[in-house]
Amino acid sequence: MSDIEFSRVTKTYPGGTTAVHDLSLHIESGSFTVFVGPSGCGKTTSMRMINRMEAPSSGTITVAGQDISRTSAVKLRLGIGYVIQNAGLLPHRTVLDNVATVPVLQGQSRREARKAALEVLDRVGLDRGLAQRYPAQLSGGQQQRVGVARALAADPPVLLMDEPFSAVDPVVRAELQNEMQRLQAELHKTIVFVTHDIDEAIKLGDRVAVFGPGGRLQQFDQPQRVLSQPATDFVAGFVGRDRGYRELSFRAADAVPVHDLPLITAEEVKGIRLSKGEWRLVVDDNRHPVGWIDTTGVEGVRAGHALADSIAAGGSLFPPDGDLRHALDSAISSPSEIGVAVDDSGAVRGGVLAKDVLEQLSRQRAAEDAERNRIFFEQEPA
Ligand code: ADP
Ligand code: MG
């Protein structure tokens, strides 16, 4: 167990800036917690107090139940991996020796540590062929992976990550985020991750701590609750536009009805007569959608191309494991306003309608409200 607890922690720097104001927070062992907020609101300071790179002005922090001000900083840090922006690698050491640094400091032989380091490179998805390169010979994304590998090499139960992916381009960044999710599913570390990007926080966090001006914690909650029920105006503003739409991605779509669709083959298109506003879905021999067709013909063919393109890109169709956001998007992005539900092979299952998605949303919310009320009224009076 390596939970982390902040109790009434305040940090005022010499000079008078209060970076963190009266922070109380319990980070569960094995959870992925994200500290998010605009620049200067105390995220880094809060994180650096966990491994004693900064000391609180008042309040206490415990790791695994131990007051860290009473443990040796060296011993504490051996159990805490630390990853920063631009990876913080030693430029004059090879990738392999960078990753082996901490185990060697801990007394492992260089030979052993290098052997283990190769395995850590595999784990973070780096080619072993890169092991003898120097950091400057790697791309930004590869450097960040080395940074993660180095933090994991000594297998610490806690991992601190301060804006680790902020300096890489969006495509690589998304890959690194996916990699972190995969790693965490295997490793179950207690991870504290700092970012100023709310989308990154929502994607990665089991719990999200939103920090605001003056180092004041605004909300500490599950990501979908930050979207559906921002605790303060500050959080609502920080989360920004489309939060209702984004929240749909946390909602199951199993109960959204799939309606029968009128399907036709490409050969049948020529002879067909449709009335205004009528659509047909054209499918190939495997029931894979090819496109929509309507009375306007040319438009229909063009719409058909659009659907065929979006099949390749994975958009516009409603996939078998899709959530409510996928379901709504498939409907509203379709020229017929009917989303095309497909099975694992890509064959058509039927159509989904936006009104059904919205009805599901209302039902799920009503069920959640009922559950909240039940818990509230069953609570023992204090
Ligand atoms: P964030 O990581 O959210 O951007 P920081 O924790 O880095 O925020 O900073 C919070 C506040 O503390 C800022 O006003 C910053 O200028 C100030 N601060 C950070 N580090 C120091 C320091 N070493 N000395 C004085 N002030 C600092
Ligand atoms: Mg910071």
Give descriptors for this structure.
single chain, 382 residues, alpha/beta, Rossmann fold, CBS-domain, 2 domains, 6-stranded mixed β-sheet, 4-stranded antiparallel β-sheet, globular, binds adenosine-5'-diphosphate, binds magnesium ion
Word description of this protein:
The structure is a single chain. The protein is α/β, with parallel strands linked by helices and 382 residues long. It folds into two domains: 4-250, Rossmann fold (3-Layer(aba) Sandwich); 263-358, CBS-domain (Roll). It has helices at 43-50, 73-78, 95-105, 110-123, 140-152, 170-187, 198-204, 223-228, 233-239, 243-247, 268-271, 298-313, 324-332, 354-378, and strands at 4-12, 18-27, 32-36, 58-63, 66-67, 80-84, 158-162, 190-195, 207-212, 216-221, 263-265, 280-283, 289-293, 317-318, 338-342, 348-353. The protein has a six-stranded mixed sheet, sandwiched between helices. A four-stranded antiparallel sheet has the order 2-1-4-5, covered by helices on one side. A three-stranded mixed sheet has the order 11-12-13. Helix 3 crosses helix 4 (110-123), helix 4 (110-123) packs across helix 5 (140-152) and helix 13 runs antiparallel to helix 14. The structure holds adenosine-5'-diphosphate and magnesium ion. The site of magnesium ion has 3 residues, from helix 1. Residues 13, 15, 17, 19, 37, 39-45 line the site of adenosine-5'-diphosphate.
Uncertain regions spanning at least 5 consecutive residues: 298-304, 309-315
Number of E-state strands: 16
Mean pLDDT: 89
Based on the structure given, which CATH architecture of the largest domain is correct?
3-Layer(aba) Sandwich
The span between the termini is 29 Å
How many domain regions? Answer: 2
Task: Write out the distinct hetero groups bound to the structure.
Answer: adenosine-5'-diphosphate, magnesium ion
Helical amount: 25-40%
**What is the percentage of strand-forming residues?**
15-25%
What would you call the shape?
globular
Oligomer category: single chain
Taking strands numbered 1, 2, ... along the chain, how are they ordered across the largest sheet?
6-7-8-3-9-10
Query: Class by helix and strand content?
Result: alpha/beta
